[in-house]
Amino acid sequence: MKEQLEAIRKSALDAGVETRTAVDLEAVRVRYLGKKGELTAVLKQMGKLSPEERPVMGQLANDVRAALEAAIESRSDALAQEAMAARLKAETVDVTIPGKKVEIGHKHPMYTVLDEIKEIFINMGFEVMDGPEIEQAEYNFTKLNAPENHPSRDWTDTFYLTEDSSILLRSQTSPMQIRAMETYGVPIRMISPGRVYRKDEVDATHSPMFHQIEGLVVDKGITMADLKGTLNAVIREIYGPNTKTRFRPHHFPFTEPSCEVDIQCHKCGGVGCPTCKGEGWIEVLGAGMVHPKVLRGCGIDPEVYSGFAFGMGLERLAMGQFKISDLRLIFENDMRFLSQF
Questions:
Q1: Is residue 165 assigned to a domain?
Q2: How confident is the model at residue 140, as a pLDDT?
Q3: C-alpha separations of 146 from 68, 124, 153, 172, 302 in Å
Q4: 68 touches 32 (CB < 8 A)
């Protein structure tokens, strides 16, 4: 039995030293020290020994078990260190290699124009106000003097949210005229930028969702000359002092008289191209003197006060400033386009 125990000691120690993985080392432990291992099999023969031999062989067996357990634990620690060293080598980061460049974002071209316009109006004494995008028909149409049969109130033109046509996605920022006059009274000088929604077909200059900037001035002695002077000053501040504008007679229920304002096409210089649909001009806003009925409906005496209102198309202003030929480019989020600004 002594020879068997010494043979097990030598064989197990040699096998443990030769292992290269924790799995192999565990196999060696099970082979020699497991319940069915070689050392266990030898110990089961202890009962055949004489009383004098049994203590001597028992001590030797314990020494062999202790030696094997110590050798396996030592080899386990060594394998763990080798694995850690290999992992550190594999995952080493070369700090001398230049890092990846992180690109810093910038303002969208449309909001660049919006901030410029806000600054222009603030410098002229206007306040910036915000209003709801989900609006009541009373504010979007009725209080703006739009009759029940007005085409803009039709379901084919407007996104209604209720079957009785009382709640809708606002089709213009003009309801802020009413809300501002009802809330703050007169005199008033405000602009209100925001998203609006109409059932427009998507093309180079139209979208079912776009942005408007509503403006309103009400005070004593306000005239059409004030309207034209203000809008010309704003447009030339945006596009430059040589920008050509055109005021055309028009009709809006909430203004009288009314007009539409065009700028000469930035793409063709007035010759005619797809951007301006061959007209040489691009419409950028509608305007006019606030209708007396609108003032009276807000509790303001039209015999004492007068005012003007306007609504600008923000996307079209951005198209003109940055020479963008197609409105759809503004909404597509194509980095090849946006990175130019």
A1: yes
A2: 93
A3: 98, 30, 8, 13, 18
A4: yes
What average pLDDT does range 264-293 have in this prediction? 86
Q: How do residues 36-45 score in pLDDT, each as one tens digit?
A: 767 666 666 6
Mean pLDDT of the chain: 86
**Residue recorded with tokens 């050798």:** 71
Q: Is the bond preceding residue 257 a cis peptide, omega within 30 degrees? A: yes
Output the DSSP codes for 320-334. Answer: HHHT-S-THHHHS--
Residues 181 and 33 in one domain: no
Judgement on whether residues 113 and 246 belong to the same structural domain of the protein: yes
79 and 132, same domain (yes or no) = no
C-beta separation of 212 from 312 below 8 A:
yes
Same domain membership, residue 83 and residue 137: no
Quick: pLDDT tens for 149-180. 888 899 988 999 999 999 999 999 999 999 99
- DSSP β-ladder status, 209-219 and 245-252: unpaired
Longest dimension (CA), the chain: 131
Q: The domain containing residue 141 runs over which residues? A: 109-338
The predicted pLDDT at position 216 comes to 96
User: What are the backbone angles phi and psi of residue 311, rounded to the nearest 5°?
Assistant: -135, 115
127 and 81: one domain?
Answer: no
Residue bearing the bigger pLDDT, 322 or 311: 311
Phi/psi for 62 (5° steps) reads: -65, -40
Same domain, 205 and 329: yes
Residues 54, 56, 57, 60, CA torsion sign: positive
By the 8 A CB rule, do 300 and 163 touch?
no
The number of folded domains in the chain is 2
39 and 9 Cβ atoms separated by less than 8 Å: no
320 in Cβ contact with 266 (< 8 Å): yes
Left, alpha or beta for 278 (phi > 0: left; psi -120 to 50: alpha)?
left
